[in-house]
Amino acid sequence: MISGHGGNVYDLARSHGCPVSEIVDMSSNINSLGPPPGLLDFLKSNMEILTRLPEVDARDSIRSFADLNDIDPRRILAGNGTTQFIYSIPEVLGSKQALILGPTYSDYRDACLRHGIKPILAAATDSDHFTPKLNDLSKSISTVDTVFICNPNNPTGSLLTRENLLSICGAHPQTIFIIDESYLSFVVGGEHHSMVNAELDNVIVLASISKMFTIPGLRIGFMIGSQDRINQFEQYRLPWNVNALAQAAVGYLDRHHRQVRTFIKNTQLYFQTQKEAFYKAIEPCEQLRPLPSTTPFILIKLKGEFLSDKVCAALAAEKILIRNCSNFDGLSNRFVRVSLKSPELNRLIAGKLMALTQSPQMESVLSAKRRIA
Ligand SMILES: Cc1ncc(COP(=O)(O)O)c(C=O)c1O
Questions:
Q1: Is the pLDDT reported for residue 133 higher than 50?
Q2: pLDDT at 1
Q3: How far is the CA of 359 from the centre of ligand 1 (A)?
Q4: In terms of C-beta density within 10 A (0-12 exposed, 13-18 middle, 19 or more buried), how is residue 296 classed?
Q5: Cis before 155? omega within 30
């Protein structure tokens, strides 16, 4: 059922018979700057908390997250990553018809299918840089009870403004809007587009902290909504759904909130610079058309003979993983997504992509790679 995820670093390592650490993973959207200073050391020196049950409803970490983000804690729920919420949303809301603004993260679709409803995909187009035209969607929105919006969007990196979101959510008070802001903290000025304090009862915000803080293995994420909505979801929460280390990590982040804010700012500026350098590096190559992105990941349209399966296979033979976007609804084998990492790796991937596209005989490049592998 869960079919839309991308390249699996564990599978690729297994196929090469090498440790996962040898794979260059430019597929996952995790912050390559690593966790905020001190976080891992704090966790390492507090391992004994695993010998106790964590707080059953993660209340302290909710308070910490509330404090860090200036939100009323009664409006927040903690989960085992935002993934836990995505998969419970259609069931808890009792969704009958859902609309997904795409092309986007496939878990919204998979969550709906799991709940027995086939969502409608409102796919923005390449010619619009994959930025949905919200006003044109009003009619479709009025036919559904649940709308999923990823903002900024994965994998396109496009961003909807808060003004536009307020307008569309305000115009459809009977429809519940799920706004996934998992990558918003990467966006320069992103806080101005957050819907966390939109004060609309029909808005639920998802906030993953896995990406920015490089802690996808800890499994903790947050949902923010009206108090009534949060109480509704609370009824479905399993006891101890957030492990003790994850809860402690959020407390640490709050106690170091100044450094954390600086860390976020530095991350934004770092990726801004890396993005500019990457666009510049691949600009001369006509077969690579990167789309504008507000995030550290960039969707690239491939032109000519150059298709995503072949590109990804050629790179995988060299232990490099990028995201083949052919299984995103609304995209095709003409798209790949690259998540920027260190300057060296970004230069490396730009060079490899350009070399592959400029190769007159892609097939011969591939077969040579296969022989090496
Ligand atoms: C858009 C989006 N939302 C949510 C998630 C899930 O993140 P987590 O469950 O770690 O909070 C992901 C993970 O890739 C994502 O890309």
A1: yes
A2: 46
A3: 36
A4: buried
A5: yes
Per-residue pLDDT tens digits for 141-166: 999 999 999 999 999 999 999 999 99
Distance CA 362, CA 360 (A): 6
Query: CA-CA distance, 74 to 63, in Å (whole number)?
Result: 9
The alpha carbon dihedral of 123, 187, 224, 198 has a sign of negative
Is 288:302 a contact under the CB 8 Å cutoff? yes
Amino acid (1-letter code) at residue 174: Q
Task: Give the per-residue pLDDT at 129.
Answer: 86
Tokens of 256: 């170091």
Q: How far is the CA of 220 from the centre of ligand 1 (A)?
A: 10
Number of Cα atoms under 13 Å in the Cβ half of residue 245: 17
Per the listing, tokens 């564990």 go with 10
Q: Is 50 exceeded by the pLDDT of residue 372?
A: no
CA 195 – CA 88 distance, rounded (Å):
20
For residue 319, the one-letter residue type is K
**Contact 332/102 with Cβ under 8 angstroms?**
no
- pLDDT category, 371, cuts 50, 70, 90? very low
Distance CA 280, CA 227 (A): 47
Closest CA to 99 of 74, 122, 124, 130: 122
Which is the closest atom of ligand 1 to the Cα of 28?
Answer: 14
From atom 2 of ligand 1, which residue's Cα is the shortest distance away?
A: 182
Q: In terms of C-beta density within 10 A (0-12 exposed, 13-18 middle, 19 or more buried), how is residue 147 classed? A: buried
Tell me, in angstroms, the distance from the centre of ligand 1 to residue 233's CA: 19
Mean pLDDT is lowest, of 94-98, 105-109, 232-236, 365-369, for: 365-369
Name the 3-class secondary structure at 277.
helix
pTM attached to this predicted model: 0.94
Q: Can you give the pLDDT at residue 5? A: 67
DSSP-based three-state secondary structure for 101 = strand
The residue type found at 349 is I
Amino acid of residue 289: R
